[in-house]
Amino acid sequence: MVRYYAKISGTGRGIPEKILNNFDLEKMVETSDEWIKTRTGMSERRVAADDKACSDYATIAAEHALQSAGLAARDLDMIIVGTVTADYAFPSTACIVQRNLGVKNIPAFDVSAGCPGWIYTSNIAKQYIENGINRHIMVIGADMLTKITNYKDRNTCILFGDAAGATIISRASDIDISRIIDADISADGSNWDLLVQPGGGSRMPASYKSVRERQHTVYMEGNKVFKLAVKSMFSSCEKVLKRNNLDTNSIDWVIPHQANMRIIEALGKKLKLDISKIIVNIEKYGNTSAATIPVALDESMRSGKIRHGDIVLMTSFGAGMTSGSLLVRI
Ligand code: ACO
Q: Which residue among 45, 192, 194, 223 has the greatest number of ligand 1 atoms within 8 angstroms of its CB, and so is best to mutate?
């Protein structure tokens, strides 16, 4: 039972300063600017400072979002961080962000759902707002994939960047037209082994061997992931659109996960979407995992591209293999 509607009341981002461009990568592995641009759409990506971790950029994004919502940290009822590159195995990054923001006695936890981490956490927040328990929830998608990237593997090292995006999900007032219209989250665990960081967990604790063999970095079967990404994001978008009697003509903007320009184009084609409706920033940031969508949303809202009342469909896919979509009126 929906007692209240949830809406996005503020957005923010925390972006590292250091840039790693395709020409830098040419010096590290056998690749070329031309190959990376044509195969992925990426030109550069950001790299977190050596002494900074996920919570540092997540906190910047959170402060930025609070400012845009006109709220103080003490107004928050919960903090959720979607991440696969937490500062530590425990405690959760959300608890570190909580201390950085100077708030106490509210729930704070992480969700590990790969790239759709922000879609998953937004959906959790939506439930707590709709059932009337909470009024304002900080939802962050933040990942520092460069910290777990193997810079000897040209198949993966060209893809990843670091960033944090934050969103505040709040109770909408009776006269608000802004609301989260619908959300879908799903997973297909049968293919979990296509994208995995093998070392460091209870399956393969850290050892000299695991470090020597670079088992603490991303392993991915890119080609298989590519196909599943298009299929899963398409079916999630279709499900949400159908459930709300909408088609892509009724959508103002689509923000897809920024994993590969060719995945974005294939999805657009399957959805019969006009390419001008698709928001893309992959050339600047690469794949920042759970941060891609909230960062693109924040940029597009602040630049005035996405406006109050616009209908935005966001969709993602990643390690798990997880997928999900969020349909929002801004
Ligand atoms: N530079 C030059 N050549 C390269 C590079 C590179 N950086 N990387 C791979 N190649 C070569 C390969 O070795 C191969 O050569 P071969 O034919 O001699 O063996 C050739 O290029 C083609 O390789 P493919 O793997 O078939 O290339 P593909 O077109 O599939 O592109 C890519 C690879 C970019 C990784 C693509 O598969 C992809 O984007 N996959 C999806 C990634 C994704 O969506 N991840 C999900 C989320 S990530 C997350 O959740 C953390």
A: 223
